[in-house]
Amino acid sequence: MKTYEIDVLVVGGGPAGLGAAIKARENGARKVLVLERDFEPGGILNQCIHNGFGLQYFSAELTGTEYAGRFIRRAGQTGVEIQTDTMVLDVKPSREVITSSAKYGLQRFQAKSIVLAMGCRERTRDAIQIYGSRPSGIFTAGTAQRFTNIEGFIPGRQVVVLGSGDIGLIMARRMKLEGCEVQGVYELLPYTNGLSRNVVQCLNDFSIPLYLQQTVTSIYGGERIAGVTTQKVDKKQNPLPGTEEYVPCDTLLLSVGLIPENELSRKAGVRIDSRTGGPLVDQNRMTTVPGIFACGNVVQVHDLADDVTVESEIAGLAAAGFAEEEPPGKKARVLVGNGLRYVVPQEIELSRNREEPLLLFMRAELPRRKVNIVISQGGMEKLKFPQPFIKPGEIIALSVTSEMLGELEIDQDIELKVEGGG
Amino acid sequence: MKKFDVVIIGGGVVGCAIARELSRYNLKIALVEKETELGSGTSKANTGLVHSGVNVDNTTLKGRLNLQANPLFDRLTFELNIPFVRNGSLVIAQNREDRQALLRDLDEARKNGVKDVRWLSREELLGKEPAINPDSLGAIYAPSGGIICPFEYTLALGQNAHKNGVVFFLGNRVLKILQEKDRVLGVETERGRLIAPYVVNAAGVFADEFDSAVDVPGIKTRRGQYLVYDRDYPVQINNTIFPRPTEVSKGIIVTPTVHGNLMIGPNAEEVEGKDSLETTAAGINEVIKGAQKLVPDIDTSAVIRMFSGLRAVASSDFVIKSTKKPRGLVLAAGIQSPGLTAAPVIGKLVVELIEELGLGLSPKSSFQAERPSPIRVGDLDYEERAKLVEKDNNYGQVVCRCEGITRGEIRDAILAPLGAVTIDGIKRRTRAASGRCQSGFCGPRLVELLKEFASISPLEATLRGGASRILKYRSKELLFKAGEKVEDL
Ligand SMILES: Cc1cc2nc3c(=O)[nH]c(=O)nc-3n(C[C@H](O)[C@H](O)[C@H](O)COP(=O)(O)OP(=O)(O)OC[C@H]3O[C@@H](n4cnc5c(N)ncnc54)[C@H](O)[C@@H]3O)c2cc1C
Ligand SMILES: Cc1cc2nc3c(=O)[nH]c(=O)nc-3n(C[C@H](O)[C@H](O)[C@H](O)COP(=O)(O)OP(=O)(O)OC[C@H]3O[C@@H](n4cnc5c(N)ncnc54)[C@H](O)[C@@H]3O)c2cc1C
After folding, report:
1. Is B51 a catalytic residue?
2. Which of B418, B368, B372 is nearest to B24 (CA)?
3. Do the chains contact at B440 and A122, CB–CB below 8 Å?
4. How far is the alpha carbon of A402 from chain B, nearest alpha carbon, in Å?
5. What is the pLDDT of residues B173-215, one digit of tens each?
6. pTM for this structure?
7. Closest C-alpha to ligand 1, atom 8
8. Which of B34, B44, B51, B62 is labelled catalytic?
9. Which of A119, B74, B106, B264 has the highest Cβ tally under 10 A?
């Protein structure tokens, strides 16, 4: 096995990986290589033929494939190398990487820095424990999307969607557009998990019913799924006896959550934040292993590809500038307070990059109106960001300007929390 | 009309083991299986244990066969090239009553010749398995208890029998056992008759369903449910952990699988119907509670799969005998637990029964006991792997990212004798799609590979045969036919 020397090696050729690679190349990294398992770069966007991408980053409404296309072209123009059909098997803390490919055989790379951008996977039927028989016709929404949009097949004609994540909402509409009967979208929580715009554009505009606080509790059918039992749930999400309803269907699509794909990150020895399910990162998206960075859905499940791009550029820039000799500065922790599920980054080096605004991404625990997101240090309130409306399904992005950063003590942990509202 | 010396009904572990034993002799043998893949019945959904023989009753046939079979597994699994580990079993005393009973069972096990069986004190037990409930009072330890992949085991028996000349009819149901003047003539199948003077009924839970099969006791089904965990699940154990057995079953067990996943189950519940393979809230909760008694940290945070299996219960024991009427019929029915363990000996026993009925047996000099190992890329180190990929680049392309299974391995599984023709078939042979994403990523690729290597079009690809198709329409098909009634295929 030959060893190849690389400046910035990127694992995963989705928008996160491509964005990071381009930024690294533009900022002085000479040899930048993206390794992608699939036959084409673009990641999950290749199956997103719907529009709604790029509104923020390009101020244009693009489809997912168009959005990816722009990055693939720019990667070519800037001299980023992309190697497809290449699965990364192993990432070592020493930044050695092993890959397997039909085209290139087994390869070993030694990188100056690495960017992890493996995306995420979907939660399955068994992970959320839906009982009943085990027929065919049960798909995660993303898998059904791939079959429909890339392979050219539709799984069935009478569809129940469980979960109101964005992919579920988009697939409910997609199935309807294919002439299927969509029985409804069932959501365990009292609110949807997807973007508000997707609820409007995918369900309301197509008269697809949304059933909140209801779930699927059992599956029927010997060979192919024939129907499901739906049930209302109480406040603690326990099914309410007596509310069972049989809904016939030949297809069940699950959109019940995404999980960052971090098997390689674990092998690389990076610490995982149990709140995000992704690597613990600093504001440059460096993980706890020096020289290994991460961005995109592998760090936190993003709603918008545009946010992925923003994050990937941070990681790409820092990966290009990474120099092992430079001792790391002191990092303060970002603590997650009341009303929030997580905050990314989990650590910041307040002494660095003080001219650049600091971007903080977070998710709310519950939907609330008219709240403040408060940043405090040592119990003292330092900064306040009013928010008209927050919900768990939409990431909150705060930009802390350099002036605001001046308010903060360099060595102290910061805490974020939600205050007020209803 | 096809003529054979022996026809075996059922391609589970028992049927396949019988086929392999018979294939040692100069005979014409056929095996008929109603499903398109071997091992689609009980043999695919069980705990996968090669029982040590602790807690068996040696006055029963199943007990005796268990004791005889366990020592055979080192050689058998070597010949068949299938993974097998004697990981040891521990039967835990959870209270003083258990302890007393288990100490008696230990004596019994020693008398029965269970190899190296001994008592572990509480300290020894917790030293060996720190995750075990600290309230435990000790355990019977049987190092000879083992774990095996039940599917690969069944398949390997079948493939080896095939190599030694057994003819397999898959996806073909036996409708009737033919007889004339109280003598077996053969079987009537969905696709014609197979003529043979000897028929073996190894049809699992369906063994009582042939019109003319007299003397077969009615078979009840007792379901057991399971949960399987992610390989990264932090709760880990090495031995197979049993509670003290009850009258009807060995109880809810915590065990590693031979592939390194933690698995818990089964419960035991009588169910109607021979296809009642559902999981239920009550059953799964019973399993979790049972497992927590042994290993308190078990929760549901990393479950990747739930499933259930059906025990075929004819009486309290196996039914292995030749029938008086008609002559020529041998039953291997009601093979409940420990059927997986006992199968190799059941095979030998059935051969003896057929010989007693008058079939002359002459050993076949060309018999080959070995079944070559499929290539398992994940078992190789990187240098070996690089060499393999240089020779055949199909082993370079990883299709299943959770389990790291390559295109080459999936191709081999499809093209091998008695190869995979369904998604589940690929999964059981290679482990593709059996990881944490449960085919989310590789599902579409597997459908493609079935087309490429088995010429099964995507619209005909099934999860496990029959009407279990994965995909029903081409895109736009429903739109072109809007207004018309679209026929379900
Ligand atoms: C179905 C769906 C619909 C969406 N709809 C919208 C929308 O309407 N609007 C919007 O703005 N955003 C949308 N998003 C969000 C956006 O597309 C994602 O956030 C974005 O694609 C994430 O980018 P990523 O690069 O982190 O991950 P991915 O796009 O998943 O890319 C990860 C890449 O890494 C590769 N990889 C993984 N492991 C390895 C390995 N070991 N070796 C080599 N390669 C590997 C994968 O093959 C993949 O190509 C949607 C997302 C999904 C899943
Ligand atoms: C929950 C559970 C846990 C168990 N755990 C263990 C264990 O850990 N260790 C152990 O040793 N044993 C265990 N067992 C027992 C073991 O799994 C069974 O004894 C064994 O698999 C039975 O094999 P079989 O070949 O008799 O039945 P099956 O595997 O069911 O095979 C019968 C075959 O006959 C076919 N068939 C039926 N009717 C027809 C027909 N008309 N025409 C053609 N083909 C037909 C079926 O499709 C099927 O493939 C367990 C069993 C259960 C249910």
Report:
1. yes
2. B368
3. yes
4. 42
5. 999 999 999 999 999 999 999 999 999 999 999 998 885 555 6
6. 0.95
7. A52
8. B51
9. B264
